Amino acid sequence: ALSDGLNALAMNDGSQLAPFLEALERELRLAGRRAAPRPIVLHRGRVRAGYRIGERLFGGLAGRRAILHVVGERPGTGHRTFSVYITAPDGSVWGQVGKVDHDITRVVAGIANTALLPDAAARTAVALLGALWAEEAK
């Protein structure tokens, strides 16, 4: 999912978001995972909007399901940054309205050409997704 959140400038800066999404897709593929064919795009969506999307898409389905929600960060740092929130519970958890929240989510923050570079952020996001998957498998 993609949301301009609190910083539409960060999300509309093609020199940051496009390279991040390309790197994310590449890293997911290398990890044996795949992204949805098209992202869900939200206007002014906040982090929990991603959780509600997951409930609708994955609630009650068997197996682990993940949302990677890219959100424009609060402006004011001098950088046009965005974050990616990674949430990957079982479909049974997605099926419990309001159950998915920040406590089971990981975040990669400060993504920008002048901060955490998009390529590095994509690698970190996919590594965190893998760790979440491994955590639940135990």
List keywords for this structure.
single chain; 138 residues; alpha/beta; Rossmann fold; 5-stranded mixed sheet; 5 helices; 5 strands; 42% helix; globular; ethanolamine ammonia-lyase activity; EutC; EutC_C
Helices and strands in order:
Layout (H helix, E strand, L loop, with lengths): L1 E2 L4 H5 L1 H17 L10 E2 L4 H12 L8 E6 L9 E6 L3 H4 L10 E7 L6 H20 L1
Parallel strand pairs: 1-2, 1-3
Antiparallel strand pairs: 3-4, 4-5
Question: How would you describe the overall organization of this protein?
Answer:
With 138 residues, the protein is α/β, with parallel strands linked by helices. The protein has one domain: 3-Layer(aba) Sandwich (Rossmann fold), CATH 3.40.50. 42% of the residues lie in helices and 17% in strands. The chain has a 5-stranded mixed beta sheet, sandwiched between helices. Helix 2 (14-30) packs parallel to helix 5. It is globular. The chain starts with a strand and ends with a helix. InterPro entries: EutC, EutC_C. GO terms for molecular function: ethanolamine ammonia-lyase activity.
Question: Roughly what is the average pLDDT, rounded to an integer?
Answer: 93
How many strand segments?
5
What is the name of the CATH architecture?
A: 3-Layer(aba) Sandwich
The structural class is alpha/beta
Number of domains: 1
Instruction: Please identify which CATH superfamily we are dealing with.
Output: Ethanolamine ammonia-lyase light chain (EutC)
First-last Cα distance: 28 Å
* SS element count, helices: 5
Sheet of most strands: 5 strands, mixed
CATH class: Alpha Beta
Order of helices and strands: EHHEHEEHEH
CATH fold topology: Rossmann fold
Give the strand line-up of the largest sheet. Answer: 2-1-3-4-5
Strand content: 15-25%
Low-confidence stretches: none
Q: In percent, how helical is the residue content?
A: 40-55%
Shape: globular
Q: In angstroms, what is the radius of gyration?
A: 14 Å
